[in-house]
Amino acid sequence: MNLIKLYEYERLNILKNGIEIINSSELDLIDKISEKHRVKFILTGRKHIKATNYVGFMKVKNKTFQVVPKIFKDNQRNADFLFYLLNYTNKLKIHHFDSGNLKTRKNNILEILISWFSSELLQQIEKGIYKNYVPIRENSPFIKGKLIMNQQLKLNTVEQGRYYCEYEEFTENNKMNQCFLYVSELLLGCTQDRNNKGKLLNIIRFLGKVDRVVITKNDILKVPFNRLNKQYKSLLDFCSLVLENSSIINSTNPKIETFTYMFDMNKLFEEFFYVFILKHTEKLDLALVKKQVFLGKLFNKFNMYCDLYLKNRDNKELLLDTKYKLANEKGYSQSDFYQMFAYSHGGNTKSNKILLLYPVETIQESFVHNIDPNNTITIHARGISISNIWDEGQKKIDDKKLLDIIKEILEDCL
């Protein structure tokens, strides 16, 4: 079992039919990844593992642990929803993405990303391998470009007929192609998909005149972009993502030992609503939208931040806090109300209108609390059912439906 699928917060037994599906060395690597990032992506125990609120995938040796949101009843739509969120919030800068890849590759997120990268890069390379001018220094029998005098005197004082020169060569052996070659070879060792392997091998063959060198994220940052190579930007961003989130072993024949691409679903849900509201500020009649607003210190000790701060054109203010979890049977979470009460009254600036937003079936409850005759706090709890606004044909949330719902909520709460 190379792909182990989990929903968020799902628990999985290590033994299946008496056979160990996750060994101790893999469990140790999962723990090391958590220690490195200081986040418990997946909880490990003696008899089971358990997903947390983080979604995405974690490649550990030859196994990939994949965690998706549990919004829909089937894994396919949940994977679609995750890709949509990552793209919409610009966490995953993928263009021309074919959502059909999700089904053909059995919702394996890692294989889908490799498919996108190899397809896009191969398409660009087949149009013509990118070349640019690269500075070259060498001790040559001929003078090329300019003579580097300090090296000439150092190396060629005795040996006559040699010239230490620096010149520029228009070549495909440049830093960008070296990066593509390096990452393609790393991904070739990760993929189990026959089509992906074929495309990566074709890329490596096309880049046969490019030097094999070890590439770091800093090398990618140094690649200059212009109108001639801007089409490669998203591909290099992906290369950076791979290198930044991987542990690579064996310097002579580099291989990816672990590759972690996980996101806090709470923050992803919050970021989605921030980006959506920001994009539709005018249609929502808002004058100001801010995220992660500092409200002050509770008891002069604990920092308080609200997810979103909204102000309409009539200068009415609203604090919005997204809660990516199921509300209770009453339609809200009690602990969330305690938190919102602290936000309203414990900060430097008092706020008397607060909105809690849940990804569940429609909730429409408001609670008014009178601090004194001149000070009233209203906390609204609202729910937006993702399944009701999901466009299955487009594999995305229906913008108009969501916009109408948010507009109605803001008109009611502001």
Structural Rg: 27 Å
Helix content: 25-40%
Which parts are unreliable, with pLDDT below 50 for 5 consecutive residues or more? Answer: none
Distance between the termini: 52 Å
Shape: globular
Number of strands: 21
Give me the secondary-structure category: alpha+beta
- How many domains, as an integer? 3
Question: What's the helix count?
Answer: 13
Could you give the order of strands across the largest sheet?
A: 14-15-16-17-19-18
Strand content: 25-35%
Taking the sheet with the most strands, its summary is:
6 strands, mixed
Mean pLDDT: 86
Q: How would you describe this protein?
A:
- By secondary structure, the chain is α+β, with helices and mostly antiparallel strands.
- The protein folds into three domains: 3-129 and 174-264, no CATH class; 132-171, no CATH class; 280-413, no CATH class.
- Helices cover 36% and strands 30% of the residues.
- The chain has helices spanning 24-37, 75-88, 100-104, 109-127, 149-156, 175-188, 194-206, 217-221, 233-244, 265-279, 334-346, 386-389, 399-413; strands at 3-7, 11-13, 15-16, 19-20, 42-44, 48-51, 54-60, 63-68, 132-140, 146-147, 163-171, 246-249, 255-264, 286-298, 302-312, 317-322, 353-358, 364-372, 375-383, 390-391, 396-397.
- The strands form six sheets. It has a six-stranded mixed sheet with strand order 14-15-16-17-19-18, sandwiched between helices. A five-stranded mixed sheet has the order 1-8-7-13-12, with helices on both faces.
- The longest helix is centred in the N-terminal third of the chain and has 19 residues, at 109-127.
